[in-house]
From TrEMBL:
This is Alpha-ketoglutarate-dependent dioxygenase AlkB. Residues 112-212 form the Fe2OG dioxygenase domain. Its cofactor is Fe(2+). InterPro entries: Alkb (IPR004574), AlkB-like (IPR027450), AlkB-like_sf (IPR037151), Oxoglu/Fe-dep_dioxygenase_dom (IPR005123). GO terms for molecular function: dioxygenase activity. Keywords: Dioxygenase, Iron, Metal-binding, Oxidoreductase. Signal peptide: none annotated. It holds the Pfam family 2OG-FeII_Oxy_2. The lineage of its organism: Bacteria, Pseudomonadati, Pseudomonadota, Alphaproteobacteria, Acetobacterales. Transmembrane segments: none annotated.
């Protein structure tokens, strides 16, 4: 059994403002996965399309006061899940507490995420280089939690053409992306076909975000 406090000592700065907390979420991973299964009953994973009409390679869903959405109308945060016509499910308390504790550990004691985006990767799924700038709250960090099979993650600089560093994210790893790294270009290489006892072939990634509420759309 991995020890939470042992892993805390191994924190590393991946880049300016980006703090890796290896295994920080291991002790609550089963509860997170149970929470994801439960949320997906209310708001199913779906493959959204870019504004240009191309399907994402990952399946996504959200919880919290608003959820990230993309279709022909563009990238945005919406209060209502367009698939169900209902508000996104409430963020489970345990999800919220985990994100706040990780952010505090990384130096952000005031972090209070209003949304959690859940990405589900099957073998071969990937995420192209992008920046996360739909939140309009760039002073708050993004907290990411990786679950299941590992991913090779790439992150660069403020310009898309800046060189990238690659890093593996494993089950239970948490990264807090604050400061200048908040605007770094980043992406995920195609997921290898492999097995994790708690998720089978799948990888899940949760990203906790604070969003400027003035921007929420119905
Ligand atoms: C660096 N997710 O949902 S997590 C995303 O593994 C996203 O699903 C990836 O990029 C995934 O937007 C990467 C790590 C991550 C998340 C957000 C970031 C890195 C970040 C925001 C800014 C800079
Ligand atoms: Fe991202």
């Amino acid at each position: 059994m991995e020890d939470l406090f042992a892993t805390l000592r191994c924190r590393t700065d991946l880049a300016d403002g980006a703090v890796l907390l290896p295994g920080f979420a291991i002790s609550c991973a089963e509860q997170l996965l149970e929470g994801i299964r439960h949320l997906a009953l209310e708001t199913p994973f779906r493959i959204m399309k870019t504004p240009g009409g191309r399907p994402l390679s990952v399946a996504t869903t959200s919880c919290g006061d608003c959820g990230w959405y993309t279709d022909q109308k563009g990238y945005r945060y919406v209060r209502t899940d367009p698939l169900t016509g209902k508000p996104w499910p409430q963020m489970p308390d345990m999800f919220f507490e985990l994100a706040c504790t990780a952010a505090k550990e990384a130096g952000y004691p005031d972090f209070s995420p209003s949304s959690c985006l859940i990405n589900r990767y099957e073998p071969g799924a990937k995420m192209g280089l992008h920046q996360d700038r739909d939140e309009d709250d760039l002073s708050s960090p993004i907290v990411s939690v990786s679950l299941g099979v590992p991913a090779r993650f790439a992150f660069g600089g403020l310009l898309k053409t800046d060189p990238v560093q690659r890093h593996d994210l494993f089950h239970g790893d948490v990264v807090v992306w604050g400061g200048i790294s908040r605007l770094a270009w980043h992406g995920v290489s195609p997921i290898r076909e492999t097995f994790h006892p708690q998720t089978g072939a799948m990888r899940y990634n949760l990203t906790f975000r604070a969003i400027n509420a003035a921007l929420f759309q119905p």
